Amino acid sequence: MTIEHWARTMEPGKRVVKTEQQDPNNERSLEHVSHVERVCLHNLLDSSTEAIYFKDLDNRFLLVSKGVMQHHIDRERKNGASENLDLGPDYYLGKTDLDLYDTALASEWMAEERRMIENAEPMVDVLERDSSDAFGGWFRTSKAPLRDEDGSIIGTFGISRDVTAQVVAEQELARREAQLRAVLDSSPDVIACYNQDLRYEMVNAKAALLLGTTPEQVVGRTDEELERPAEVLALLVPALRQVVETKEAREVEFLSQVGEQTICWHARMVPQLSGDGEVTGVVMAARDLTQLKAVQTVLAHQALHDHLTGLANRLALMERLSTAMGNLRSNPGRIVLLFIDLDNFKLINDAYGHEVGDEVLIEVASRLRGAARRADMVARLGGDEFVMLFDVLEPDKDARTLANRALRSLRKGFVHDGETLSVTASIGAVVISDAEIDVDDVLRDADIAMYSAKAKGKNQIAMFQPVMTDWCLNVRREPAALLERSPDLRAPR
Fold first, then answer.
1. CATH architecture of 305-485
2. DSSP-derived secondary structure for 414-456
3. Would you say 274 and 174 are in contact if contact means Cβ atoms under 8 Å apart?
4. Alpha helices in 10-80 (DSSP H)
5. What topology does CATH give the domain 3-164?
6. How confident is residue 469, by pLDDT bands cut at 50, 70 and 90?
7. Angle, to 10 degrees, between the axis of helix 354-371 and the axis of helix 345-352?
8. N or C: less crowded end of the chain, CB within 10 Å?
């Protein structure tokens, strides 16, 4: 079949190029094509916005649709052609791709069509560009050999659909997905998405690391199928199910083993809802709280302990004393509190420096710990002041016995650079059995008793008596005149 045969089937001047070429061996003339077939073809090509075309064996256009013309006109206008450009069907007939497109792209298409003719195989749904520059559009193209009734290949035909908007949208979506993936994978948090059946739909790099595999191996599986530890499943799975059932967020903390390190995680789970408000899955974000917990532990310890000696501080002492006083209401008994002040400790600081003084304080703390039971509290109030609290007192123990034990622990000298330093202490003791006494008054009374012991020569134990309160006030007003009249200053036994 030749171009001339096509020409005889169409109205003059329509989508054909006239030629003198004629094939005398052709047994079928297009005059026999039914009127219906011609009308259908005519309407298809005139109305279709998709690019439909027929070519001969030399790549020359035989018929083109409205879509081919419109696409070419749009391209010409982008390249600077007049807005009034109006090219009719006759313009394209007999032309090749080289006449309409840039050389490199036209040559590539023509080579494809030659291979298609040689192999007698179609090309189906191929994504192509209509320009080699960055401004070209995207098309989904299907091509096939054009055959005569006897099966002979007489050319090619194809249809191209403009999918530029779709491709650009897909590229933008892919860019945003890659961007989101980069953000998720750079996050130090574990991030995962579950479906309604609690199967993973997405995990970031941190989550895959926690699970000990790759994201691809995680997707589609459950935590049970991934053989996570039983203690993790016991916390995580019920919480996830509750989110699905209640549509409410949940938070849990759990431990997991990563290599040789135990990690503490805080997980927040929120429902993923559809447009009609139904739960379609769960999004979970888990943060590593291991360092925070460690810092919190350190801060909590520092808040309640002396930084030098590691003993309880004033705050911890007062909390413990308040608890012990409260216990007296339901469990009557006795509490003993010893207020210990080192004698002449300033002389050690002045003679040897504060570094040596700190070493002595650390050793004093250690010895007082040794003199106390595990259940007792030893605290440092600051400077050279210490307190021992016995809030679970055995029936056969009295305050003086406990104070003597503390005093004896300090009698052994403290060695520094081969030199033995002597350290003594004055101890004030108070015994409490009345739960209604204010805790600040308890500490004050023990302090007054200690001051009484120090006033009578130091290295003493003094048991608090109410009369000491007035005496102490008078001493502060007239210390020199009243020191010798300190009450209840017996030598330690």
1. 2-Layer Sandwich (3.30)
2. EEETTEEEP--EEEEEEEE--TTS-HHHHHHHHHHHHHHHHHT
3. no
4. 35-47, 66-78
5. Beta-Lactamase (3.30.450)
6. confident
7. 140
8. C
